[in-house]
Design goal:
- It contains six helices and 15 strands.
- It is α/β, with parallel strands linked by helices.
- It folds into two domains: 6-127 and 210-226, Rossmann fold (3-Layer(aba) Sandwich); 136-203, Alpha-Beta Plaits, CATH 3.30.70.
- The chain is globular, with a radius of gyration of 17 Å.
- It starts with 5 loop residues before the first helix and ends with a strand.
- The protein binds ribulose-5-phosphate (5RP).
- Ribulose-5-phosphate (5RP) binds next to helix 2 and helix 4.
Length: 227
């Protein structure tokens, strides 16, 4: 049976190989991104690569520490040379849904501090229209969250509070996630993002509009392309 991680690993390794010596980079989150850390650690060991990273989640920070990858706080650097991260869906215009791992608020802050956001995906994440198969994650403050939910649902979706072990899942920021299902998908991501940006009670949503530079895509055969 074929290794289901081939596409993830191939895309992640190719992106990690784009990191220049001496770089300070944004470290994304998720199972695809985990392979970037593996490859960076190998390059440090084999090539003496000098790199440091600003993590987007406590899980990524912990994994990086375990692998001996030096970390910096985002507030201690002016800019990042590059941020690398996974995605849940990406459309032909490089608009993206993120937040499957509930880390999108920090991921956006880190990406915005970087000269370029490089997205790494398997081909299965490529879609024509965002939001048809994957629900849009929206981080909300627990305070008054039912009011935020009503405002969000007025944009044409139904929502579900993400749970873990029977309790609302807590993000690294101490907030909750609503997963929003849009029956016809999200044909105009910029318009929806602007509406959600202006909605009281939302901390951040998972629509990354006009933020992506290169996209590294791999398939299950281990073929990779950068677009
Ligand atoms: C976390 C994210 C992840 O990058 C996204 O969910 C993709 O994860 P995976 O690589 O495990 O499929 O946005 O908030």
């Amino acid at each position: 049976m074929r290794d289901p991680n081939i596409a993830k690993r191939t895309a992640a390794f190719a992106a990690a190989d784009l990191v220049p010596d001496g770089a300070t980079i944004g470290l994304g989150s998720g199972s695809t991104f985990a392979f970037v850390l593996e490859r960076l650690a190998a390059r440090m060991r084999d090539e003496g690569l000098d790199v440091r990273g600003a993590p987007t989640s406590s899980a990524t920070a912990e994994r990086a520490r375990t692998l001996g990858i030096p970390l910096v706080s985002l507030d201690d650097v002016e800019r990042l040379d590059l941020a690398i991260d996974g995605a849940d869906e990406i459309d032909p215009n490089k608009q993206v849904i993120k937040g499957g791992g509930a880390a999108h608020t920090r991921e956006r802050i880190v990406a915005a501090a970087a000269d370029e956001l490089v997205i790494i995906v398997g081909e299965n994440k490529l879609v024509d229209v965002l939001g048809k198969a994957f629900r849009l994650p929206i981080e909300v403050l627990p305070f008054g969250w039912t009011h935020a939910r009503r405002r969000i649902e007025a944009t044409g979706c139904t929502t579900e509070l993400r749970q873990r072990g029977g309790e609302p899942l807590l993000t690294d920021n101490g907030n909750w996630i609503l997963d929003a299902a849009y029956p016809d998908g999200i044909p105009d991501p910029a318009a929806l993002a602007a509406t959600l940006d202006a909605t009281v009670g939302i901390v951040d949503h998972g629509l990354f509009v006009d933020m992506v530079g290169r996209v590294v895509v791999a398939d299950d055969e281990g073929r990779v392309r950068i677009q």
